[in-house]
Amino acid sequence: MIQRQALEKKKSFGRRDLILLLAVLVIGLIGIVILYTRPAALNGEVEVAVDGEVVMTLPLSEDTEVTIEGVDGGENLLVIQDGTAKIESASCPDGICVRHYAISRDGESIICLPNRVVVTIRGGEKGDVDAVV
Question: Would you list the domain boundaries of the chain?
Fold first, then answer.
């Protein structure tokens, strides 16, 4: 009798489960849309820090290429083009910073840990989102 009651209470997928799943999907999609439609940093600057110390600030509006001298002789090639900043090449062994997407919005960063280089967008328009969960 107890086993039968336990089997009767088991439902594989009910109406409430479907509503919860749809609500989670809608919230996730809204978060993605907000994240990718944030405005670019107009009149922003690219701040370059090496080992925690800001070594240069460049306008995001001017196309340029700069070689950044990192720690222990490491080098990163920063390319600013069409309002975006990207690490084009690096002497670090893993190259994660090179594979990072181009940044253009306030607060976005590219970090090269082996060379201790941090490239951050500062100023300009800010997006409406503090965080997306």
Answer: 2-36, 45-122
Say which CATH class 45-122 falls into. Answer: mainly beta
Query: Looking at the chain, how many residues does it have?
Result: 133
Alpha carbon 119 to chain centroid, angstroms: 12
Torsion of the alpha carbons at 64, 65, 69 and 73, rounded to the nearest 10: 180
Measured from the Cβ of residue 6, the count of other Cβ atoms closer than 10 Å reads: 9
Q: What is the pLDDT of residues 82-116, one digit of tens each?
A: 889 999 999 988 899 999 999 988 889 999 999 99
Q: What is the pLDDT of residues 5-49, one digit of tens each?
A: 655 666 677 888 899 999 999 999 998 887 777 665 567 899 999
Number of Cβ within 10 Å of residue 51's Cβ equals 11
Q: Any idea which residue has 């069409």 for tokens?
A: 82
Is residue 124 within 8 A of residue 43, CB to CB? The reply is yes
126: its two tokens? 């800010």
Alpha-carbon distance of 40 to 61, in angstroms, equals 11
Amino acid (1-letter code) at residue 82: D
